[in-house]
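SECTION: protein entry
WANTED: fold as tokens:
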Amino acid sequence: MTRILILTVLLFPLNVFSQVLEHPNFSLASHPTLNLDKIEFAEGRTILYFTITNAKLGGTFCIDPGSYLKNSMGEEVYVMTALANIPACPENYRFKSVGESLTFVLYFPEISKNLKYIDLIEPCEEACISIKYILLDAEMNELVNKGFTLYNTGKPRLAQQHFEDILATRSDNSSPVFGTIYLYLMTISFDLGDSGQIKKYYNELKTSSIINKDEIIETARTEGVIR
């Protein structure tokens, strides 16, 4: 098993030549209260910053030392090399209360600049972290985050129009981000009580060639957006 170092951030000072992707979007995640805050692409390493919020009494959390990044669209694997502010399993952090948040950092080797999507996989047997189809395109992330801002500021119809515009102008009918956008559109329509639009988006997604469409449809069913 690869040795993992538990390090303070001071051991890894910020690289002045690094690039940072703020609030990366992704299609699917195992833990609803886990947020991927940013990804730093630095010389020789890739650094992921997270915040997790405890949702139950006596909650604990740790990261399996064999966790890795994987090219969502290929076979390349990048095994975690270090972590900060979180124990490596079997040691664990015990939350003091429900609602407590913990920020932590995971370090990986430098990933290929050609990758468009990555998965984070924690190989364990129970409550394992999985985040799939993390979008690495900064421009597309900015567009998607603009839609979130509209939605979160009480403008669901403007958010809906924004996401529809992305589909109309940017969709290649295959990339995972467009499956995610369909999920957002179905969710917004559900919130608006518009069953006709939900059916429209569902049918468009179902007949598309988007590679994660089956997973997106299953997520929509699990969340009660479609039946």
Observations:
- The radius of gyration is 18 Å.
- Residues 5-135 form a domain with the Immunoglobulin-like fold (CATH 2.60.40).
- Confidence is low (pLDDT under 50) at residues 1-16.
